[in-house]
Design a protein that fits this description.
The structure is a single chain. The chain has helices at residues 12-52, 71-74, 84-94, 111-116, 118-121, 135-140, 144-160, 178-185, 187-195, 223-247; strands spanning 63-69, 99-105, 128-132, 164-168, 199-200. It is α/β, with parallel strands linked by helices. It has a single domain (64-248), classed as SGNH hydrolase (Rossmann fold), CATH 3.40.50. Residues 1-10, 16-25 and 46-51 have low confidence and may be disordered. InterPro entries: Ester_Hydrolysis_Enzymes, Lipase_GDSL_AS, SGNH_hydro, SGNH_hydro_sf. The chain crosses the membrane at residues 37-56.
């Protein structure tokens, strides 16, 4: 009768039972080794995912954004999926950044018009507003002091609601003269400095006056033009959203 680990089986049945125990122990150690290996791989994968996706973007709750603007945001002359907010949301999603985007662009709206509809255009729960207003003010030659006052009021009211604001600048057309242009063009950098806002200096940068990227009116971008606006603005928007994400912590 053989001895195993100092135990003397009392019968053949005991011997078989002991053999099974030894076999199970070996199997358990093998499972433990495999488990440890897979856990190591899982930890490595999580680490790589953390590097690929910034911590501020790792959330099950999308950031709630509103684009408050005019026809440049509304997407005049374009299908809904080609409007600036829709394309911006798609570009952000491609980077793993989840946003709930509301297109609050109204064609023909001035900065004063945006101010008048601010409360119902920007619902409760909004975390950030991309403010794109002023193009119609400049095209109509509205007094820059009125534009400045309306935009200042919009920003101040949003700040009072604890809503972050990113400002999109606009440039006056040259037909109203250099003095008008200087007064109008200074509005956006001044507001950005006054309220410590992220500023994208000119919404139509890289698109304005390029017939290939504008519709027949020469004012509103084509879908390809919107792509350029989104690509150019994306780093500024990402930095803006990063600030909102960090404030959630």
């Amino acid at each position: 009768m053989a001895m195993v680990s100092g135990v003397v089986p009392a019968s053949e049945e005991d011997s078989m039972r002991l053999s099974m125990v030894r076999s199970y122990g070996n199997s358990a150690r093998a499972v433990e080794r495999r488990y440890g290996f897979f856990m190591h791989i899982a930890v490595l994968m999580i680490a790589l995912m953390t590097v690929a996706n910034p911590a501020w973007a790792e959330t099950t709750k999308p950031i709630k954004l509103v684009v408050l603007g005019d026809s440049l945001s509304a997407g005049l002359g374009l299908p809904a999926q080609d409007a600036f907010p829709a394309k911006l949301q798609k570009a952000l999603q491609a980077k793993g950044i989840a946003v709930d985007m509301i297109n609050a662009g109204v064609s023909g709206d001035t900065s004063s018009g945006g101010r008048d509809r601010l409360d119902w255009s920007v619902p409760d729960g909004t975390e950030g507003v991309i403010l794109e207003l002023g193009a119609n003010d400049a095209m109509r030659g509205i007094d820059p002091d009125l534009t400045r006052a309306a935009l200042t009021d919009i920003v101040g009211r949003l700040k009072a609601r604890k809503i972050a604001v990113m400002l999109c600048g606009m440039l006056a057309p040259p037909n109203f003269g250099a003095d008008y242009g200087a007064r109008f063009n200074s509005i956006y950098p001044d507001l950005a400095k006054q309220f410590d806002l992220p500023l994208y200096p000119f919404f139509l940068d890289g698109v304005a006056a390029d017939a290939r990227l504008n519709q027949a009116d020469g004012i509103h971008p084509t879908a390809a033009g919107v792509d350029i606006v989104v690509n150019n603005m994306l780093p500024t928007v990402e930095a803006f959203l990063r600030t909102i994400g960090e404030q959630r912590r």
